[in-house]
Amino acid sequence: MAVEFVNVYCKIQQGLTMCLENNGDVQKVTLPRSSRYIQPHPHFKPTKEEFIVFGSSCTPVAKEFWEAWKKRMGLDYPPLKNELIWAVEPAKKADGIAKAREMETTLTGYEQIDPKKEKGITKLNPDQDTPLE
After folding, report:
1. Reported pTM
2. Which among 61, 48, 49, 76 has a CA at the least distance from the CA of 16?
3. Three-state secondary structure along 16-82?
């Protein structure tokens, strides 16, 4: 039986590991945070363009796993609710890329802060744990 895949896009900077338990076995699929590719299924052979798209990682995931995980987490799960994770069928790849382009400037709340722009942040002296002058 052939395994069907969906392309799952992830905008979360740290990536995300999706886990499902089935009769004591835990299945895991990692959505990467960078261009590093993690193969979710041994029958899938990726193409070079299926990595990072407009700041979102794109990972092929078995459709059955994706649907079960989504159902388990519920649509109120913040990354799903806020559309930081979404999936498209491989035949609709252009839709996934368009969504990634739309989400390119979306802030997730996990971005690094710029100490120069934030008030009250002071660099510490690494030797003494005291503020640098």
Report:
1. 0.70
2. 61
3. EEEEEEECCEEEEEEECCCCCCCCCCCCCCCCCCCCEECCEEEEEEEHHHHHHHHHHHCCCCHHHHC
Structure tokens given for 107: 């802030």
Which strand ranges, in their side-by-side order, compose the sheet holding 5-10?
A: 52-53, 56-62, 5-10, 85-88
- CA torsion sign, 89 to 90 to 93 to 96? positive
How do the pLDDT tens digits run along the chain, 133 residues long? 678 999 999 888 788 899 999 888 999 988 876 543 444 455 555 555 445 667 788 888 999 999 999 999 999 999 999 989 999 998 888 888 888 888 878 877 776 677 677 777 776 666 666 555 5
- 90's enclosing H/E stretch is none
